[in-house]
Amino acid sequence: MPNVVAIIGIRMASTRLYGKPLKIIDGKPIVRHLIDIFRKVRGIDSIVLATSDKEENKVFLDYAKQEGLFCYVDTGHSEEDVLGRLIRTANIVKANHVVRATPEGPIRYQNIDTVIKRHLDTAADLTYTEKLPGGTNVEVISLSAMKRAYQLDEKYHCAMVTLCMNEHPDIFKIEIITPPKHLQRPELDLDVDTEGNLSAVREIFDNAGRGKNGFVDVEDAIAYVDKHPRLARMLAEGRNPIEGRIW
Q1: pLDDT tier for residue 245 given thresholds of 50, 70 and 90
Q2: Which domains does the chain have, with CATH numbers?
Q3: DSSP 3-state assignment of 154?
Q4: pLDDT (tens digit, 9 = 90+) per residue, 113-164?
Q5: Rounded CA gap, 126 and 145, in Å?
Q6: Rounded to 5, what percent of the chain is helix, strand, coil?
Q7: What contacts 208, CB < 8 A, 6 or more positions away?
Q8: Distance set, CA 93 to CA 17, 46, 69, 90, 222 (Å)
Q9: Cβ distance 131 to 179 under 8 Å?
């Protein structure tokens, strides 16, 4: 049986908003929002945190213990080698497939279970959603594919985990899931990278509707932002053109 593990890559460092995984939105840290979402997903067998061995990241060991989760500390490796850290984490927890997440936003595509099912049913190396608002996409990657990508070229030992697979679709099997038209808003950011982004997402959580699962879904967030255009400008603050891409 496949072992599907959600791995949340986490660190305190940030070029624009230090400690963002622990920023409070709707009464709990951003990382806790992701944990709560993943705990409700059919097909995810376990959740782990993965961080580097920098002193400032020790806080996540205590946080993981508080949440009853395992936190892998990637000792002796570059903090920028995110792909390598994912592989080493997956090896430790014996994962065959990884649902990858970065705690930069508390909103995710609501049908994560269908992404996992598509990935497993098609025996894909990489399965991901496209055209959703920045910060809400989902990707599932097989451990074997990550290992092959890592061995291809040292330039892939970096933060853009699926860059190699997207650059070599001839040797990696990739499944792309396109959401319904009303959710296709790639120009909209719903992640948190600046204080302005954080304020906007807090307002969304304070006022937007909630899906039947009790979470603020992508659809709820889009509807609220469309009614309050100033939020779109706040969410776009500090945006980098490469952000929002799954890789």
Answers
A1: very low
A2: 4-184 (3.90.550.10)
A3: helix
A4: 999 999 999 999 999 999 999 999 999 999 999 999 998 877 666 667 888 8
A5: 8
A6: 40, 15, 45
A7: 216, 220, 221, 223, 224
A8: 30, 9, 12, 5, 36
A9: yes
